[in-house]
Write a structure and sequence with these properties.
This protein is mainly alpha-helical. About 40% of the residues lie in helices and about 5% in strands.
């Protein structure tokens, strides 16, 4: 049997912007560098851990996803440097 639990917390009204986060720019950052960051960010993803998905499936999914993100003019892609 399951038990439903509801957790509540207060969230500050302002988000703190870290100085080590920058908007990805093709002029400044290399695309391969961005892909490396994307793949490492998915190391705990179910698409990476689930045996149903191959490592190539995982990489293709994340590669297409980040490609769409950087092509959208209003999208912000955080980039840690």
């Amino acid at each position: 049997m399951d038990t439903k639990c509801t957790y509540v917390t207060q969230v500050g009204s302002r988000l703190e912007i870290k100085s080590k986060i920058a908007k990805f720019s093709r002029l400044v950052h290399g695309y391969d560098e961005l892909l490396e960051l994307v793949y490492s960010s998915g190391h705990e993803s179910r698409f990476n851990k689930d045996s149903f998905f191959s490592s190539k499936d995982f990489e293709r999914l994340y590669h297409v996803g980040i490609g769409i993100s950087i092509l959208e003019p209003n999208e912000f892609v955080p980039f840690k440097y």
